[in-house]
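Data deposition worksheet. Section B asks for the primary sequence of the deposited chain exactly as it was used as input, without tags or linkers unless they were present during the calculation. Section C holds the resulting structure in token form. Section D is free text for depositor observations; keep each observation to a single sentence. Incomplete worksheets are returned to the depositor.
Section A, Depositor: J.P.
Section B:
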Amino acid sequence: MFDDRPAFGVRVHALGGVTVAEIAGELDIFAVGRIVARLDSLVQVRCPDLILDLRPVTFLDCAGLSLMCRLRNRVLERDGRLRLVIADPRFLRLLRMVRLDDAFEVLEDLTPAIAGAAGASGPAAGGGGDALG
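Section C:
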């Protein structure tokens, strides 16, 4: 039987002043069309501090790259900060190939990015977060 459930998802949680959006599955044109509004809403505040955790992403195409650039531009317009957590060497190589490796602050792990916020605010604010997808 054909499984037509989306092969992607987004979980968002806040830790101190940092918003973490964990994207899972395939980040392709179909997924981007479904999650772009949700991610745009995360950067509507002044000085947003957004982390895209891409470790659970299994596939990334030009639509996913375009989404990341869109978010970067919106964050910079609002004097904010965008970081990407990427562990897959294929995605790092892709960023280099399209010459976007210098456009993003890339981390291998989420822990250092949120360590300061966790120490300042205690347990994660906002509970278990919400999910889409």
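Section D:
The beta strands are 8-15, 18-27, 49-53, 57-60, 81-85, 105-107, 130-132.
Residues 1-6, 120-133 have pLDDT under 50 and may be disordered.
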